[in-house]
Automatic annotation (TrEMBL):
Residues 2-173 form the RlmG N-terminal domain. Keywords: Cytoplasm, Methyltransferase, rRNA processing, S-adenosyl-L-methionine, Transferase. Signal peptide: none annotated. PROSITE patterns: N6_MTASE. One of its GO terms (biological process) is rRNA processing. This is Uncharacterized protein. Pfam families: MTS, RLMG_N. The keyword Iron does not apply. InterPro entries: DNA_methylase_N6_adenine_CS, RlmG_N, RsmC/RlmG, SAM-dependent_MTases_sf, Small_mtfrase_dom. Residues 197-357 form the Methyltransferase small domain. CDD domains: AdoMet_MTases.
Length: 360
């Protein structure tokens, strides 16, 4: 696509090796087109849901604030900017007050409508009275709830016609509403786990996680442990209760997940990491790595990312250390794990889930 005579080669720069996957969608293109059609360009533009930097690259000259939710997103946007010799953009996380009041925002609507609501909460709390928000989504992903959320925050919500199966929702006349803190509390093992809206498994503690916690094998000699893809931190915290002297690291790609985990587990020997790659850890660092690994990325299913993480786990485990994984059985990780580890044992399974213990 070209915009104001410019054309960029936007790439994904993610851990997946599948080159057929696209770095932007028709919804992103529709947002860019809507921006190009504006008679008067805004002073302070906010961009939400720009997964790999398509909007950030094309609109960089308007000095947007790009609100990121993932470390992998921030890295991909930076890589695309760098590849096109564009100076880095201003970033914000979705929880902090913004430096400048926005008067315009573009939102690629995320799959999690709780996260969409969190975006609107930040936008309405950090914008001028005359803010316009243009949201885009693929028509097959529309749900009435999306409209309902938009109507909670704006008096006028207008839908566009569909173009390439994408549609816009234009929001104007923001309502005067009281700011809400969008945090849910989920109970497990007599503890309330808090999580920001938009974090994995919003309604209940994930069933795979519960199955995992019932079958995890931990040992008093596990001194340094990593909860990889830690979400709200439940796995790391349940281990911490058993081994209060162990050093526990929790890492997640999602800013909101890491912020939630910080609410649930703290201590001198607890370390939180907002990252998507194990390259931040030394070789042979851990006795034990536990994970309920990601394989859903918005509407995409991609097992290349967990497979990449498993290879990183092998490097970061001590000799004799082990990686324990819970997974949906159909993913059949065993065939990928066996060539890597000296032994791969199934320590629990039921109709749906399986727990592997892989020894280095
Ligand atoms: C299936 S959830 C598990 C969350 C939590 N451990 C639990 O059991 O409730 C997977 C998590 O992986 C995170 N994630 C996705 N890609 C990641 C990556 N490359 N590195 C670390 N975490 C990642 C997601 O943000 C999500 O929180």
């Amino acid at each position: 696509m070209d915009f104001e005579g410019r054309k960029y080669q936007i790439k994904r720069y993610d851990l997946s090796e599948d080159k057929s996957l696209k770095a932007w969608s028709a919804a992103d293109e529709y947002l860019l087109q809507a921006f190009a059609d504006l008679e008067k360009k805004p002073n302070q533009l906010g961009i939400y849901g720009d997964r790999f930097g398509f909007l950030g690259c094309y609109l960089h000259s308007f000095n947007p604030t790009v609100v990121f939710t993932q470390k992998s997103q921030q890295k991909a946007i930076d890589a695309n900017l760098k590849a096109h010799n564009i100076p880095l953009l201003s970033y914000s996380d979705p929880l902090s007050p913004l430096k400048n009041e926005m008067d315009f925002a573009l939102v690629n609507v995320p799959k999690s409508l709780e996260l969409f609501q969190l975006f609107l909460e930040q936008i309405t709390g950090n914008s001028s009275e005359d803010i316009t928000v243009i949201c885009a989504f693929m028509t097959r992903h529309f749900s009435p709830k999306l409209l309902q959320i938009a109507q909670e925050y704006f008096d006028v919500t207008e839908q566009s016609r569909a173009v390439k199966k994408a549609r816009l929702l234009v929001l104007t006349k923001k309502k005067n509403i009281v700011k809400k803190e969008l945090i849910t509390s989920l109970n497990y093992n007599n503890q309330d786990y808090k999580q920001y809206w938009g974090v994995f498994s919003a309604q209940h503690i994930d069933y795979a996680t519960q199955f995992f916690l019932e079958h995890l094998e931990i040992d008093d000699t596990d001194r340094c442990i990593l909860d990889l893809a830690s979400g709200n931190g439940i796995i790391g915290n349940e281990i911490f209760k058993e081994l209060p002297d162990a050093e526990i690291h929790l890492m997640d790609d999602s800013y909101l997940a890491v912020s939630s985990a910080k609410l649930n587990i703290q201590g001198e020997n607890i370390h939180h990491h907002f990252n998507n790659e194990l390259t931040i850890f030394d070789d042979n660092a851990f006795y034990l790595i536990v994970t309920n690994p990601p394989f859903h990325f918005e509407y995409e299913i991609n097992i290349q990312i967990p497979l990449h993480l498993f290879k990183g786990c092998l490097r970061c485990l001590k000799k004799g250390g082990n990686l324990q994984i819970v997974a949906n059985k159909h993913l059949n990780y065993k065939i990928h794990l066996e060539p890597l580890f000296s032994s791969v044992e199934i320590i629990a399974e039921d109709k749906k889930f399986i727990v592997y213990k892989c020894i280095k």
